Amino acid sequence: MIKIIKYILLDILRNKMVLGYAVFLFAITFTVFSLEDSTQKGLLSMLNLVLFIVPLVSVIFSTIYVYNSSEFIELLVSQPLKRSRIWLSIFVGLAGALSLAFFAGAGLPMLFYEPSATGLMLLLMGLLISVIFVAIAMLAAVHTRDKAKGIGFAILLWIYFSLLFDGLVLFLLFQFADYPLEKAMIGISALNPIDLGRILVLLKMDVSALMGYTGAVFKEFYGTDKGLIVSLSVMVLWIALPLLYSLKKFNRKDL
Amino acid sequence: MISANKVNKSFGKLKVLNEVSFTSNSGQCIALIGPNGCGKTTFIKCVLGMVVPDTGTITVMGKDVASGWQYRSEVGYMPQVGRYPENMQIGQVIEMLTDIRQSHKTIDDDLISAFALKALYHKRMRTLSGGTMQKVSAAIAFLFGASVLILDEPTAGLDPVASEILREKVLAEKARGKLILITSHILSELDELISDIVYMQDGSILLYKTLNALKEETGETKLSRAIAQIMTNKPS
């Protein structure tokens, strides 16, 4: 398995796109921190960047990569290799390359300017979100044979998680404004890894006071160690479930 | 070595394999022939585990294809259309496969030298012509000394010299007692190569006979004419 991962990593790194992504993140992170006087504000800008651009690049790059390596997959499947190992190797290769790019591009300058708990949390969220969206992309790619459809589906998932979901939550809140929804919001926020990441970072920033009563409830739950463990486990589930489902699909797929 | 038991496969509404049952042993060289779209390639892909049958079982050397994967180290496969990672060089592909296969047996690079592929090792796969691609596929299929060889239209696209080299190689491997499965539409080139014939139509095996039996039955000396007679007289 390590051999396959090696070949996949080599193949991804030969592709200049990941390198470009890392350089882009590096440039943006430096710019953001140099523009703002307080690093807290810089972190806030970085948060939005991490929550928008990282999942987008992660999901699109991974989907396209899986489609473009269909020849590679076909070649490997006819060799004495277990199918699930091939699929997991692709996942590890993609997740590794994209996490590495995020760490080198955004993580290192962030640690340089803001080596605080907030900075570390943001770094952790960026890495987790990179990996989560690789898993989601692999699910989208295994689902449809058609490349255009698959990429469209992946982008749709990204739009849902980063834009539509918040709209739906707002809609719910307004419709049921008469009921105490604060506790339920904790459960609902677990349905979206991007929101979960946002909440965890914002709570570290002490701006949760701005979020009103819901913010206080969030703080009470997510601010504790138990809440942190629960939310990190939920994010790990967000990696494991799409990955396992796509693995199951891939094992039965006709090539 | 390869046996299939009531294999069924449909792609959507299209039934590609219909209750295919088949057994074969080492030392046989079997020609799998039939009209386009009769399920030859699908059957081969089922044997390799690339297509998963809906029902039925296939075993290779006594091992179930659905549950195992180790059996593929004893299978050499030459696809109809070789599909390789586009930006890898020929040398890199061969090196990678050797690395993955970890074959403790000696590497059989007869075809690599016969096709003079070493001189092309630095060429990227996407720049190759159809014929060169076929040469690479053939070289890879024979590279690991596998005891089952599956060749899907091996000579399509090869020049006369190269197809003669490949033919000699198949004869040599047959003499070593390997099981060889060939699909082809060029019946004349199969004549001296094969020992048995499988004729497929619409996803089922219509006929499975030794070459001699077939020739005797039809009274023809040429395979192509014998098959033509079967096809025209076939009970409908």
Summarize this structure as a short list of keywords or feature phrases.
heterodimer, A: about 260 residues, mainly alpha, 11 helices, B: about 240 residues, alpha/beta, Rossmann fold, six-stranded mixed β-sheet, four-stranded antiparallel β-sheet, about 25% strand
Looking at how many chains there are and whether they match, the oligomeric state comes to heterodimer
Give Rg of chain B in angstroms. Answer: 18 Å
How does the helix and strand content of chain A classify structurally? mainly alpha
**Shape category of chain A:** globular
Query: Could you spell the SSE succession of chain A in H and E letters?
Result: HHHHHHHHHHH
Count of distinct strands of chain A: 0
Biggest interface pair, counts:
A-B, 23 and 26 residues
CATH homologous superfamily grouping of chain B: P-loop containing nucleotide triphosphate hydrolases
Task: Offer a concise description of the structure.
Chain A is mostly helical. Chain A is built from 11 helices and no strands. Chain A has one domain.
